[in-house]
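Long-time lurker. I teach an intro course on protein structure, and each term I like to show students one example going from raw sequence to a predicted 3D structure in token notation. This year I'd like something fresh instead of my usual example. Would anyone be willing to generate the tokens for the chain below so I can use it in lecture? Attribution to the forum is fine with me.
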Amino acid sequence: MAASPLIVPILLAALAQGDAKGQAPPPPPDAKWKADFKLSMIEKEGKWVFVIEGTTNIPPEVKLRARVYALEIFGDFKEGEREDDEPLVWEDEGGQPSYRGFHPEPSGKFREEVYTFVRKPYSIRYRAKVHYIPRDQTDAVTLKVGDDDFFRKADLRVGTDADYEKELIDRVGEVARDLEAMEKLYGELADKYKETKKKFDGDAWKKWKESWFEKVEEYNKRNEQRFSLWAVWMERQAKMRIGGMCELMRRISTAADEHFFEGAKNEERIQEMLKGFHDYFEEAIEVIGINAPLDPRTVGPLLAAYEKAFAPLRAWILNPEGDPMKVL
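-- Reply from a regular --
Happy to contribute to a lecture. Here you go:
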């Protein structure tokens, strides 16, 4: 019995599909482009520098981007090990570009200093990526290399887990000292504003503010050197919140200037900002997990509320008459 003419093409297609299942998928278009390199961190002139160095067959006319990321590896009961990375530097943060642009040498060699930090990076895992971005290229390059993004990577582990734990302990202490300084500077501002309201002396205010403002800026500048990494959550929170406190104190002092020298009717706003600082400070020490000594000027409102709430109970203890449940 002869096979139907319609069945033959179907059988051939099925056989071809079966053969394809046993074959490896074709390599991606960028597979031919290699980059064999290492990531290192060196100390140079009192600063810390991330360096990539290696070779590539990517043509020298190609413009590449190098970035360094903090790398975390998680255990996942469904997927096994899972990797997550985040940029050490976001868009032009901290006075340096978010990536290092470069061309390989004609020989294929390259060595680039990607990022430089005043503050020593943490003893954690890092990953360097050399990115090919089509929009950075000429038409001639994209015709040769391709229209799709790709990257090559190299990993580095700095220090040990024990080193990292020690760094955290040291830097938690550093954050605690900075928070104490923030609280002190806030208290000085609140007191001076109150004093100047009672007895205005413009020259005295300006002289005091100049010295006080220099201290705020000094702490803010040092705070900007901290890392905004989810991988080091404590430091990320400290940078965000101490930076926020410095900015809030700047706004309060500017509003006070406007009130004293321009006649601005903004006393209510100033009081709201003063209270806002107090609330923000309390939230910061709770979130970061630091039991910083509290300045009496900051803790005063809390103690006053506590005293008011417990005054009836203390009175009943001294003179126990009536139903104590009514007091409670």
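Some talking points for your students: The beta strands are 35-44, 47-56, 64-76, 80-87, 100-102, 109-117, 125-132, 150-157. Residues 130 and 178 are 37 Å apart (CA to CA).
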